[in-house]
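Fold this sequence, please.
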Amino acid sequence: MRRLSRAEIEPARFAKQWLDARRLALNENERLAEHLYRALNQVFYALDEYPIDPALREHGDTTDAELLGIVDRTPEWIDGAGDRRRPPPPPLFGSAPLHTAAPPP
């Protein structure tokens, strides 16, 4: 995620690598704390609607900018989970549009 945020990797390459890593974690039955699970699920659901091949992009798909916005905020959501003064992690996908799932940084 940091490499995408620093523009060291393109969104499509990030998507492939992240989804591969998630698949591996699921296959190995990796367990996560609830706040981490919720934050990382926002990335997963954004990628679920992200066309890796731009030729397949449809109206309503996650854009590069939306994906980057979610990825940029994810470490803050994770780090702030124990701080009650910070907003909670974003709602799971489906309860709010992706681009409004969390307050701006």
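Confidence is low (pLDDT under 50) at residues 92-105. The CA atoms of residues 66 and 99 lie 6 Å apart.
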